[in-house]
Amino acid sequence: MSGLSVRPRRFAPLGDGEQNGDAPRLNGIVFDVDGTLCQPQNYMFGEMRAALGIEKPTDILDHIYSLPPNEQEKAQEDIRAIERRAMSVQKPQAGLLKLMDYLDSRGVQKGICTRNFDAPVTHLLTTFLPAHKFGPIVTRDFRPPKPDPAGILHIAKSWGLSDRGDSLIMVGDSIDDMTAGYKAGAATVLLVNEVNKELAEHEHTDLCINQLDDLIGILEKGFVGQIDKSDEAPDTKKQAEEAMKQ
């Protein structure tokens, strides 16, 4: 594990002729799926909890993994059925294709780290991004899941970056995404919506965007994260985490 990198995080500009001192090179971007590459389908979480007979703030995957082994597969299939229904009405996030075209033009590697299972991820990529390559793709089968940084560090290692995440950006919409990226040493970018806006001030969030292609201008000129919020009041941090726990 890379350890936590010094904040604010910064990367050298990707634009031709741009300068940003001695900022390090960006080696890749890791994306969440639901709420990030596609529009949020948060209603799924309520349906999943109802199917499993649990309530907030119990984590859905933690609950499943706590079940006896002979009960886990049925529980997994119950939530997979909900995801299959939801994937039929997936909608891409604004700016999705524009950002991916830009990253390809700049040679930036793209990976995925999600708590979804593989079918909704495959559906999204084949439906909306058939010409774009992502890899590795870390789904629910990889353990431990976010907010543990293991999935992001696995992607970094697959890209030949040893076990360091500090030359990467994690883009997501949840506290799990921000915390996993932060713990991996990656810079974190929050795709803001009405539900997660409290996380804009969270200590694990380096930068906020309103839609995906907002990231293009930032990367062209050089990524610079927000001021370190490690001295943020503990109760504020706790309130944000409680508000965003799914």
UniProtKB/TrEMBL annotation:
SUPFAM superfamilies: HAD-like (SSF56784)
Name of this protein: Putative HAD superfamily hydrolase
Keyword Hydrolase on entry: yes
InterPro entries: HAD-like_sf (IPR036412), HAD-SF_hydro_IA (IPR006439), HAD_2 (IPR041492), HAD_sf (IPR023214)
GO molecular-function terms, A-Z: phosphatase activity
Coiled coil: none
Pfam family for this entry, one: HAD_2
Keywords: Hydrolase
Region span, Disordered: 1-20
Source organism of the structure: Aulographum hederae CBS 113979
